[in-house]
Design goal:
- The chain is mainly α and about 220 residues long.
- It has helices at about 1-20, 40-60, 60-65, 75-80, 85-110, 110-130, 140-155, 170-185, 195-215, 215-220; strands spanning about 160, 165-170.
- The protein has a two-stranded antiparallel sheet.
């Protein structure tokens, strides 16, 4: 009797969790925005970055050092955003990527999103290599690029906490992210690539301005 009750309880808990995850009210898992192109490319990107975090632990610890950003040379200039030092580093970047990357993916489409991630990663990595030079990994530079793009193009959307108690506009969240980096300049020895972040913001703003000037780049028709 106890075993049957346990199985029934587990099945019921699983069903409740599945219904909760499939509910349209779970806005904290997805950017709350009018669907246009969807978020497929951003989902795949998040999955690849998550898998990349585990590769040095499961396959070979030297992978982290081999694919880290060290200079303007390959492969580190391209591969560094797919690796992270620790779980909090990974979680922070994935949450922000789900927000800003998701908004950009939905607005611009999967192909443009993938190209922009590569562009933002390379530009932020090159900026870090030129002005800092220490070994670096992480997708924060690309995340800052998407944040700068969202601000420049005034993309709308919102994110919510799990219980829907707090709802934050994406524009406000991007401004808070920029403010956070400005404040971090005042704190020494944090081992955060602020130069790379600035390179990402700059790349996002420049791409946004180009898209404002040319609707073709944004994937929209000129009016």
């Amino acid at each position: 009797m106890t075993s049957f009750l346990r199985v029934d309880f587990c099945c019921g808990t699983f069903r409740q969790a599945r219904e909760r995850l499939c509910s349209p009210r779970v806005e904290w898992l997805f950017p709350d925005v009018r669907r246009k192109h969807g978020f497929i490319a951003n989902y795949w990107l998040i999955a690849f970055i998550f898998l990349g975090f585990w590769l040095p632990w499961v396959v070979d610890a030297s992978l982290l050092d081999r694919f880290a950003l060290r200079s303007l040379a390959l492969p580190g200039l391209v591969t560094h955003p797919f690796f992270h030092v620790h779980s909090l580093h990974l979680l922070w970047n994935l949450l922000l990527l789900a927000c800003f990357g998701g908004i950009a993916c939905n607005e611009l489409g999967n192909l443009r999103h993938a190209i922009l991630f590569l562009v933002f990663s390379v530009v932020s990595g090159a900026t870090h290599a030129m002005f800092d030079g220490d070994r670096a990994v992480g997708a924060s530079g690309a995340v800052c690029g998407f944040a700068g793009l969202v601000l420049t193009l005034r993309m709308e959307g919102a994110v919510s906490f799990p219980d829907d108690s707090v709802r934050v506009r994406v524009q406000s969240l991007a401004k808070l992210l920029v403010l956070k980096d400005v404040l971090l300049w005042l704190l020494p020895d944090l081992h955060i690539s602020l130069a790379g972040h600035c390179g990402g913001y700059a790349a996002g703003v420049i791409v946004g301005c180009l898209m404002c000037a040319s609707p073709f780049l944004r994937g929209s028709k000129a009016s």
